[in-house]
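Lab notes, practical 5.
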Amino acid sequence: METKNIMIVGVGGQGSLLASKILGHLFLSQGYDVKVSEVHGMSQRGGSVVTYVRYGDKVYSPVIDEGEADYIVSFEILEAARWLPYLKKEGQIVTNTQQIDPMPVITGAAKYPEDLADKIKNAGAKIDAIDCLAKAKEAGSAKAVNIVLLGRLSHYFDIPEEAWMASLEANVPAKFLEMNKKAFELGKNA
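Output from the prediction step:
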């Protein structure tokens, strides 16, 4: 199987590292060679962050270049727009519709762009945009946005739900597991 590429993009502190660990575990459990990069960016300061997950028969590097991402999983819609050049022509974006103001917007130096989902669509990208924050709160914690996104992403893979659940169980602390399973289901069924 040719190597597939997933970019996880967002803002520091949103759980992209856990999402990448779960995906890495999932693809390993399915018999693929997997490379997961570390989080790149200002993760400690609420800045833009990106993590790469690559899987296939043999993966030599964890890095994804422009135009190579099969999927972009975005925790915040402006981040989906920012990383759009990395998406393959036939690629898929799965994004949270939540808006988190970057520093230039907070300081008044810039305005948050409007109608980003439409702009991304008009650029030719396939976009699956849902309010993951609302689903995460419904599951029991605003911090479960990452798991809601993974639930939504699961639609695009022919991998049994039991494998997704096993990867959740292996990576999520037991006291948060039921809430995260609910978040996954809410994202999957959104």
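Observations recorded by the TA: The first strand starts at residue 4 and ends at 11. DSSP finds eight helices and seven strands in the chain.
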